[in-house]
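Appendix B. Chain record.
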Amino acid sequence: MGVLWDLEPATAAKHRLYQRYLDAWWPILLQASNGYIRPRVTLLDAFAGPGRYKGGEDGSPVFILRRLLHHSAVDRMGLSRERVRLIFIEKDRARYEHLLTELTGQFGPLDDLPVRVEVHRGEAGRDSEMLLTRSKAWGHPILGIFDSWGSVQTPLDLMTRIARNKSSEVITTFGPNWFNRREELNADILDMVFGGRAHWTPADDEQRPDERWRVWTRTYREALHRAGFGYQLQFKLVPRTGQDLYLVFGTGSPKGLEAMKDAMWKVDDSDGMSFRDPRTRGAVPLGQLDLFQGTGCTDPELVELITQRLTLGQASVEEIGRWLLTETSRWKASHALGAVKEMRQEGALVVLSAGKLTSKSLVSLR
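Structure tokens predicted for this chain:
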């Protein structure tokens, strides 16, 4: 691969997700809350790339910086070089140099910007922790984007340290061919990423091609849980054309989950992009990011997930909503009530509580 390469459909879809998520993330962390202003916020893009694609599309460092500087709430976010730091890491020398040229060409001298931008040539797994330390990021919110496309080689020890920072989050991607070429990776690297051989060898035993992504993303989600992230999402991003992409998101806050899921639902799905939940195996129409689609029919993935939850026992609608938020890839608590109403009409479940169906109503499978 050269300095620049074509923008894959899955990458373009992922970038739209990141943009929407960051549009919410920046003001949440930078605007004053009850008089409190966070002293420092750091974004780490550990596999930054050259900043540009062959077709002229922006790379992640460019759109991250542009959307921050031109955010609709920028006047209320108190940007300063001491408070806001962006760290971009790129291993390849030619791409690193291209990224520097791209950023300075579009934004001018980096030292003159209202936020601190650091561009480093280095390896994500080896250098991220050191660069965060040098930037005085520890003890303050961090968003770590570990978007390698190829091998996943970020130490779990680093994820653990990020998890200990209040309001910190991570996004890790698995490339489209990772699960098929996993055997090419060094077992010692997998130990480093997953926290030891006992944690990943069961996943390596899975031979069914359709199941490998589910098992491996679940295994990584469990690793993030052990690292200290109270909430984790795993999902497959399915573009209309091209190969799928797999993401795992870790956060310590339900607000972080809600912000990520809001971003999913706001992404333009005109190209047929969709998100798939590893808990489901049924057919889900591409691009079906709206609950009812004007047909009166609840998304079959949502029905399947609620059915799975109720096989564990009866639950209130509120409990189902909480489970959807914390355990499923894109569904939110607000989706529970409408889906339960429709499932009751279809005879799929029964309401055990008397009176009007509300969030407090108890339901079970028929």
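Further analysis of this model is presented in Appendix C.
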